[in-house]
Amino acid sequence: MSQEPKFITNEPALLMEKTLIVSDLHLGIEYEFYQSGIKVPSQTEKIKQKLDSLLRVTKAKTLIFLGDTKHKVPGISYQEMREIPELLEYFSSKTKLICVMGNHDPGLEDLAPKTVSLRPTQGFLLDNIYLNHGHTWPAKDFLKAKYIVIGHVQPQIEFRDRLGYVWREQVWLRAELNKTKLKEKYGKIKNLPELIIMPAFNPFAGGHAINRKVEVKEHANPLVKCANMKKAKIYLLDGTYLGELGKL
Questions:
Q1: What is the DSSP code (8-state) at residue 10?
Q2: What is the mean pLDDT of residues 195-206?
Q3: CA-CA distances (angstroms) from residue 241 to 169, 172, 174?
Q4: Does 31 score more than 90 pLDDT?
Q5: Are the CB atoms for 199 and 136 separated by under 8 Å?
Q6: Taking residues 101-125, what's their average pLDDT?
Q7: Which of 115, 85, 96, 105 lies closest to 151 in space, CA to CA?
Q8: N or C: which end of the chain has fewer CB within 10 A?
């Protein structure tokens, strides 16, 4: 059965029939703040409650963490050792839990209970959707998909008012991939999936302003470099369509 991705209104989460997908939880990021002299209470319980609520509302049977479940790299912080196994155990006891490995996830295999399904950094194909964190090239199987969904970029849009006040909002991004650029990596290509970039689930994880060329260039991943970013469609979390990136 073909699955169509649905953005959950006002949430950085994606639903594919009975599968709920979130990316960039960055559990344990508060420890980095602490090391910088900033005291921020652990947000793990709030994230747990938010995920619980989304599972109830969507009635999802599978939960996917699309990379960067943990934050510290390299290594594992004391906070991560204490909080991550408990959270993974909790959700894997309630539903099928899949964790795609992201660039912050080395060591996650030592924290995850056996009930959690860990997938490699290249990602995996789920029906007509390919899931990859975004920091590495996907396996060639992604060419069989209708959509490829990634995180990693943590896209935001930067706004500026007439008085010079600047703020950012999380956004979704949908873009077409460039067949010519991808031929260099994968050879002959018949069809290409649409690229969907997810915002970060953890609000403390920050993000990158995709309407600032410097930030796009600095944090571009392999697929972003192969996408037609100027014509990428941008949506706020509430569903508002902002237009094409090149016109913002």
A1: T
A2: 95
A3: 13, 10, 11
A4: no
A5: no
A6: 96
A7: 105
A8: N
Q: What is the pLDDT of residue 206?
A: 87
SS3 of 61-120: CEEEECCCCECCCCCCCHHHHHHHHHHHHHHHHHCEEEEECCCCCCCHHHHCCCCCEEEC
Q: Which of 149, 132, 153 is nearest to 6 (CA)?
A: 149
Task: Using pLDDT thresholds of 50, 70 and 90, give the confidence band for residue 202.
Answer: very high
pLDDT digits (tens, 9 = 90+) for 51-85: 999 999 999 999 999 999 999 999 999 999 999 99
- Tokens standing for 95? 């539903």
**Cβ atoms of 49 and 92 closer than 8 Å:** no
Tokens found for residue 87: 């959270």
Q: Out of 22-31, 205-214, 239-248, pick the least confident.
A: 205-214
Residue 196 token pair: 């969907």
How far apart, in whole angstroms, are the C-alpha atoms of residue 233 and residue 176?
Answer: 9
Q: Which two tokens stand for residue 67?
A: 């990379």
Alpha helix stretches (DSSP H) within 144-237: 179-186, 213-219, 222-225
Neighbours of 187 (CB within 10 A): 9
Check if the beta carbon of residue 152 is closer than 8 Å to that of residue 133. Answer: yes
- pLDDT at residue 219, rounded to an integer: 56
Residue type (1 letter), 184: E
Q: Which two tokens stand for residue 101?
A: 């490995």
Tokens of 194: 């649409």
Separation between Cα atoms, residue 31 and residue 29, nearest integer Å: 5
Strand, coil or helix: 235? strand
Containing 45, the helix (H) or strand (E) segment is helix 44-58
